[in-house]
Amino acid sequence: MFLTLPFLSLLFSIIIAYFNIKKNKGVIFLSVFYFLIGLISLNYYLFTYDSQLPWLLAILYGHFSALFFLIGPASYIYVRNTLSDQEGLRRKDFWHFIPSLYLLVGLIPYFLKPYPEKLALVTKILNQPGELYTNQIHIFASNLVNDFIRNFLYVYYAWMMIMLLIKSSETNETESIGSSGMQRRVTFQWLNIFVAFNTFIASILLSSNFIVLFSPENDFSNLNEYLPYYRILIMLAFIMPLLILLFPRVLYGIPQITVEELELIQTKKKKSNSEKTELDVDDSFYEIAQIILNYIETEKPYLNPRFSIRDIVVTLNIPQHHVSYCFNKILNTPFPTIKNKYRIEYVKELILKDTEKRYSLEGLMKEAGFTSKNSFFQAFKEIEGCTPKVWSEQQKAI
């Protein structure tokens, strides 16, 4: 049973990244964190619970150790970017990768060893568990020292995440009560849970290091003493990705209006001769949503078969996760549905104007931007409740 949990964690991390990267690129750091936690829990499981898979251990052991140093940075950058509504890395973020690079360089000689030697080493560790801490595959330090450094840094990152939440809590309490206010409150609650999990996991890992360091007479032979710690780690690695199912909207982050978006709103108001007023965040995103709809209606980009959210991002200079947020949370309608709605409306206009029957159904489909008959008929039936032919006959009867 326990063996399946790390694999499920790895699978969930990939699913989260694949289905949500277009909504919010910041999700990649959350997915990386989940993936690494799943990987390290699998590593611990194979050493402490199941010694029947030495070939898999020979593949995992040592080869991913440098990546485990990124668990803390990945979680910290995710929390920081979510609170600040930013994507990607900052210029100073390269400092976070230095410990991982240190370990990577020290492991190069181990990487170059043939697989049979690695399999022999793993087999020796399984027979003599103390070797897990005393052997030195890294040229600069033993495994125990490197594990301690990694877990100490993880605790440090957990502390920095707590500080970020404390700093942002006052701002969160004064936000509006609309849709954006709800988004902020739910996401902030999720971040508190996420940081609490990280703090707990980091504390467990560092505690296990202290237990080993202060073992009587440096007796590292009995790993069974640390099984409760690793069992908790494995369970948490499985539970944490599942929490996304309880908080799916957190994948949009905490949207904050950018300077470019404010300028876009004011430009629209000037064109409509509206008075310049101060808008709260919720009103601002409502305005952004209306600007997006106005662009779709006037420019008709949906007639292009390749029309996507990216076109809106580039044309209007609005962050992609803000566009997704406007569709899904402000307009409460996914982008594909709105795109198909405008395309179907265009088809209906062509049908009504085409008194001479110049267009075939296939011609109508292509004119509106559809690329396949199945998607065209399915969209038409979902929106109008009947086929294009039936709808056309109904209009003639009116």
Automatic annotation (TrEMBL):
Name of the protein in question: AraC family transcriptional regulator
Domain HTH araC/xylS-type: 286-394
Transmembrane segments: 6-21, 28-47, 53-73, 94-112, 148-166, 187-214, 226-247
Keywords for this protein: DNA-binding, Membrane, Transcription, Transcription regulation, Transmembrane, Transmembrane helix
PROSITE patterns: HTH_ARAC_FAMILY_2
Pfam families assigned to the protein according to its UniProt record, in alphabetical order: HTH_18
DNA-binding in keyword set: yes
Taxonomy, superkingdom: Bacteria
Originating species: Aquirufa ecclesiirivi
Gene3D superfamilies: Homeodomain-like
Record has DNA-binding as a keyword: yes
